[in-house]
Design brief:
heterodimer; A: 113 residues; mainly beta; four-stranded antiparallel beta sheet; B: 109 residues; five-stranded antiparallel beta sheet; 11 strands; 0% helix; globular
């Protein structure tokens, strides 16, 4: 792979179900991010990780959790999905946390019914 | 609070020039990014400004005035493929990106 990938591309999920969105990068970037993008709103940061083994909360973290066991992977978990989590989710990475040219994955379109 | 303002939508003609403005009020400033996002795709990097002035890169230029909390993206010789949303994002004092809602640019023949 080259760059940053996300899986699945899209998903329809029943409310209350647990879901993990996957994100993998092969650029050896230290920092990774999860955003959601909703119509009429800017990208909103959910969680971030400045380096493997550390994570932090962004602007809208409630209902989401992340882990960063290694440099390459940064999964996002919805423990019990709700309809308001219907959105397009983008994973991104940057070489360093303070050098913020971010590279984005192709996105996951999630619908919670 | 932190705020990034951009026009919601703009229309321009193929071959013309368009300027997309961005004003910001953030807790600290460590740079400003412009990204392009085609419909259904991921954002891609266009430019980065941290000092006042104009940065030129081919048909695209970006300007920053830190004292005015203002930036613009200038697109010259517009092509149909420039139809996209343009996102302004400011790096705040915590080195987090604060994103504007984006400007949808429609190019007409």
């Amino acid at each position: 792979i080259a760059g940053i990938t996300q899986a699945p591309t899209s998903q329809i999920l029943a409310a209350g179900r647990r879901m993990t969105l996957r994100c993998t990068q092969d650029m050896r970037h230290n920092a990774m991010y999860w955003y959601r993008q909703d119509l009429g709103l800017g990208l909103r940061l959910i969680h971030y990780s400045n380096t493997a083994g550390t994570t932090g909360k962004g602007e809208v973290p409630d209902g989401y959790s992340v882990s960063r066991a290694n440099t390459d992977d940064f999964p996002l978990t919805l423990a019990s999905a709700v309809p308001s989590q219907t959105s397009v989710y983008f994973c991104a990475s940057s070489l360093l946390a303070d050098r913020n040219e971010q590279f984005f994955g192709p996105g996951t379109r999630l619908t919670v019914l | 609070g932190q705020n990034i303002d951009q026009p919601t939508e703009m229309t321009a003609t193929e071959g013309a020039i368009v300027q997309i403005n961005c004003t910001y009020q953030t807790s600290g400033f460590n740079g400003l990014f412009w990204y392009q996002q085609h419909a259904g795709e991921a954002p891609t990097f266009l430019s980065y400004n941290v000092l006042d002035g104009l940065e030129e890169k081919g048909r695209f230029s970006s300007f920053l005035s830190r004292s005015k909390g203002y930036s613009y993206l200038l697109l010259k010789e517009l092509q149909m493929k420039d139809s996209a949303s343009y996102l302004c994002a400011v790096v705040d004092s915590n080195y987090q990106l604060i994103w504007g809602a984006g400007t949808k640019l429609i190019i007409k023949p």
